Each structure stands twice: as C-alpha cells, then as structure tokens.
DNA sequence: AATGGGACCAACCGCCGACAG
DNA sequence: CCTGTCGGCGGTTGGTCCCAT
C-alpha cells in the first residue's frame, strides 16, 4: 500500500491515499453543516489536508448517506446490463437508476464482469442466429405476457430517455418515471428479461455504440449477456 | 502449504464543461 | 471574449481477499 500511503503531493501538499476514520469524521461534519458542494473549501474549513476532488470522491462513493454496502442483486445487475446497452459507458447516468449505488461501483462491476470479454465475431453471429430462431419459437408463448407489459414489441425498442426530472430521474417515452419501475425491481427485471426482442435490439444498439466509440467501449458479448440473464443473473 | 488468477474495491488521474470574474 | 477555477465524469491503477489448483 505504498502507492498512496501517506504520500503528500509535493506541489500542493495534499495528502493522498486511503482515508482515515478521523478524516471521514471531519468530512461528514463539514457536509453536515455546509451541505454538498464547495469542496475546495473543505480543507480550509476543516483543516483536512485533502484536495476538493478527493473530498468529493470520498463523500460520493463512500460516505454519502443511503449508499448500499451490499453486493449488487441479480435484478440490479440486469438493470445495469440493459442500461449499458442503451447508454454505453455513462456510469453516472446508469447510477441514477440504481438508488444507493455509485457510478464507481457500477463501473467496477461492469469492468470486472464484462470488459475483459472480447466477443468473437463468428461466435457472436452464430449465437444471434440461434437466438433469433429460439425467439420466433417462443414468441407465441410470450405474446400474452408481453401484451400485459406493453402494447407492441417495438414499444420497448422505442424507450427513449428524453430528459431528466427535477429529481434527476430520467423520463421515458410514455412519461412514466423509471424510479417507479425500479422501486419494484422484480417487475423491472421481468420486464427486461421477458422481452427477447428488446434484448436483441439492444444488442444491436450496443454494437453501434461500441463501433461509434472506436471499439473502446465496454461492450460485452451478447451471447454471454443472454446466458447471464437466463441464468437469473448469476455468473457461471 | 504455496501460488496463481479472478473478483472486488478504493482512490487517483486527466479531461471537459460550466461559470464567474 | 478570455482565462482561471471548480465540479463532474470516465478511465485506470494497484491492493486485498478468496478460491481453485
């Protein structure tokens, strides 16, 4: 742990490295009395020898009230996968859909589970072909269920995050607030896993996103994704 | 028991946009 | 309009833990 350990930035004198409980206490007290923001003032007000950036990061990722310390649930993982297909590496945007989760946490999760997977093009195509066949077969069975969720398969394709509310939550096409959906994550999970057309289209979108980003994005193998979801969100 | 690798996590870095002076 | 500062974001790094071999 010598990378940051008690090392001071030579130019500005900011301490780096892991935070101590005393430093956390000072930061919590500062935010409690001054609110979030004005991070550059933290060192002046509290005597904390940390940069504003470091203070903000510590607060947002670790100290902020309401943060979930538990592991991501399969439902949350499913939401992340699906939102990543729509939003790409917009971790902060994805995090807004998952109360109590930070962009850093989601980013770490994605990187750990999917970033390393370089999709093989041939395998990818083959899996898509097989998947399409399966979907045609399953379509009849799912029609009734899907109709209860949305009016047409295209409805899901057209989920369009137009803007955000004052609460910072996105609004989707039909003016429903997504938080209402993720308040019931079981519903949300069923929603996104039940509609195979939706997934198929999202993967196509993901391909586009990856291509547009010059291949530097965190695209995952679609086959792995569907396998993952069909396992109920557990890695094999 | 030793070790190698993957998962997880905390934290830093660099870049960018907004905004005030 | 220009410039400096600040906050936010995505990318990256490296330590720790756990498990399989």
Give a verbal description of the structure.
58% of the residues lie in helices and 2% in strands. It has 236 residues and is an all-alpha fold. The chain has 2 domains: 1-65, Homeodomain-like (Arc Repressor Mutant, subunit A), CATH 1.10.10; 70-236, no CATH class. The protein has a two-stranded antiparallel ribbon with strand order 1-2. A hairpin with a 5-residue loop joins strand 1 (163-164) and strand 2. It starts with 20 loop residues before the first helix and ends in a 6-residue tail after the last helix. The structure holds a DNA duplex (21 and 21 nucleotides).
Which terms summarize this structure?
disordered N terminus, 236 residues, two-stranded antiparallel ribbon, mainly alpha, disordered C terminus, transcription regulation, nucleus, elongated, Arc Repressor Mutant, subunit A, DNA-binding
Described by strand count, sense and barrel closure, the largest sheet is: 2 strands, antiparallel
N-to-C series of helices and strands: HHHHHHHHEEHHHH
Biggest sheet, spatial arrangement of strands:
1-2
Tally of separate domains: 2
